[in-house]
Write a structure and sequence with these properties.
The chain is α/β, with parallel strands linked by helices. Helix content is 34%, strand content 22%.
């Protein structure tokens, strides 16, 4: 595609360079630039793409998209200067990849908790009904036999459009996308036609980025903003009637609104909810029909996730029978209330809960199994410091014993993070339940050994869930909570057997 054709509808502040090169690729990482690349000089949180303009040209970039002048004297690369580089990057990506959302129905899911499980449920329901669907989110990108890990929950706009073009070319009918607040704030989904938008819930998270809960909520609401998906008509909005923020989500939209919930009046409701030894059982009441569901997942939060997915599926024309059958076969998502089974007589649960509301719901659900509970909890570095004492207090309140440990400290001192957490234990009764073990592997081993000696305990390991690495000062080491737990269980059992002999 010629550069002139690609940028013809883009309001340029300034255009420099005498050439009109063929553009073979769009990149925002200078290391990936090559012959014919349009390199986008995106200012980031930790670095600035403008600093790598000359490097990108040296690698073959034919053109640069910038917000301010760059020094590439002596080269013939074209330079396009704009005032809002992220929005323009998104629009160029749409044009370059042929606007794949004209060919796909995009279902976006946003909210503090439940996005990953809900997107996977929606995809499972659609595919069970014979409707091919791809997925983009925290666990990566998947469609058919294509799978790829991603650095962010919602990829940058260029990658997002590339993935959707791949899905459309391979015959997908839907793209189900997790929409994070940061991605919506940065405009990564600008230009995507949203066929259906789902809101799960809103609680404290990411205040290190958004500063206030209102700013955080406003970013979530962008998923429902008609003006950000021109040409798509009005998206269908599926919102949680029991969450007060639902009104804000649809305030800026003229969408058709479908409400789901348990406590308040809703278009899709769960009734007769009960916990079983295999998960949750309930009936879904929608329109003039009620149908029973057996969900092989635990917790009220998963009832809400199933309601959100079912409301979307019903709107897409799936029958109650299709939904009932599909939900009964949904086995969950890696790192979300994942049971670790290594031959031990006690429960071990790994979960991604990394904010106060998520941790509270996790521990409340684990409590329903009966017996005693020991939790392993940490807080990530370089993130919202205010939630650290809150999470520690919740861990102590809902556990019989709790171990505070290192999560992903990034650039922070792990001891400082743990000290921030411990400040949340403002009562002696809470402090008596807690112990600090900075080494995460040792913390997990301590919890498991406690349960080995007293199998009435269940062990909950919170914070990292599906993650397979631990990050510290820009480097990482392999660390998968579920794998570490399984290895430790087997080691403890072997050591105990050797002592008995």
């Amino acid at each position: 595609m010629k550069l002139s054709s690609l940028i013809r509808h883009i309001p340029c502040v300034q255009l420099a360079g005498q050439t009109d090169p063929d553009i073979a690729d769009i990149q925002f990482d200078s290391r990936k630039a090559g012959k014919g690349t349009l390199f986008v000089c995106v200012p980031g949180l930790r670095t600035d793409g403008h600093l790598y303009a000359r490097e990108a040209v040296s690698r073959g970039a034919a053109a640069l998209l910038v917000e301010r002048p760059v020094d590439i004297a002596g080269t013939d690369a074209a330079v396009i200067q704009v005032s809002d580089i992220r929005n323009v990057m998104a629009r160029l990506a749409v044009a370059f990849y042929g606007d794949p959302t004209r060919e796909l129905k995009v279902i976006g899911v946003t909210g503090t908790n439940g996005k990953t499980t809900t997107t996977h449920m929606i995809r499972h329901l659609l595919e069970h009904a014979g409707r091919p669907a791809g997925i983009i989110g925290t666990l990566g990108v998947a469609y058919g036999d294509f799978e790829e890990k991603t650095a962010n929950t919602t990829p940058e706009s260029v990658d997002l459009q590339r993935y959707m073009r791949l899905m459309a070319d391979r015959g997908a009918a839907y793209a189900v996308i997790e929409a994070s607040s940061q991605a919506l704030a940065m405009g990564r989904m600008n230009g995507c036609r949203r066929h259906l938008a789902v809101f799960t819930n809103l609680t404290r998270d990411h205040l290190d980025y958004h500063s206030t809960l209102k700013a955080y909520a406003d970013c979530k609401a962008k998923l429902f903003d008609d003006s950000l998906s021109p040409g798509a008509g009005h998206p269908i909005a599926v919102v949680n009637a029991d969450d007060p923020a639902s009104g804000l989500m649809v305030r800026a939209s003229r969408a058709e609104v479908i409400r789901y919930g348990i406590r308040r009046r809703a278009d899709v409701r769960a009734v007769g909810i009960r916990s079983t030894d295999k998960g949750m059982a309930f009936a879904i009441a929608a329109a003039n029909e009620t149908f029973e569901v057996e969900l092989p997942l635990f917790g009220m939060h998963n009832v809400y996730n199933a309601l959100a997915a079912s409301a979307a599926a019903l709107r897409e024309g799936l029958s109650p029978a299709e939904i009932r059958e599909a939900l009964s076969g949904f086995r969950g998502v890696k790192g979300r209330y994942q049971f670790v089974r290594a031959g031990q007589p006690y429960r071990v649960i790994v979960d991604y809960a990394h904010n106060p509301d998520g941790l509270k719901k996790l521990l409340q659900t684990a409590r329903e199994h009966g017996g005693k509970l020991i939790s392993v909890v940490g807080c990530e570095g370089d993130k919202d410091k205010g939630k650290r004492p809150v999470m520690a207090r919740i861990a102590a309140q809902y556990s019989d014993r709790t171990i505070f440990t290192t999560d992903n400290p990034h650039s922070e001192d792990p001891i400082r993070i743990l000290s921030d957490m411990y400040k949340g234990l403002d009562h002696a009764s809470c402090r008596s339940k807690a112990v600090i073990i900075p080494d995460r592997r040792e913390a997990i081993a301590c919890a498991l050994d406690t349960a080995r000696q007293d199998p009435d305990y269940s062990v909950v390991i919170a914070g990292k869930g599906h993650e397979t690495r631990q990050w510290w000062h820009g480097t990482s080491i392999p660390f998968d909570d579920a794998e570490v737990a399984a290895e430790t269980i087997r080691r403890l059992e072997a050591e105990n057997a050797a002592v008995v002999k």
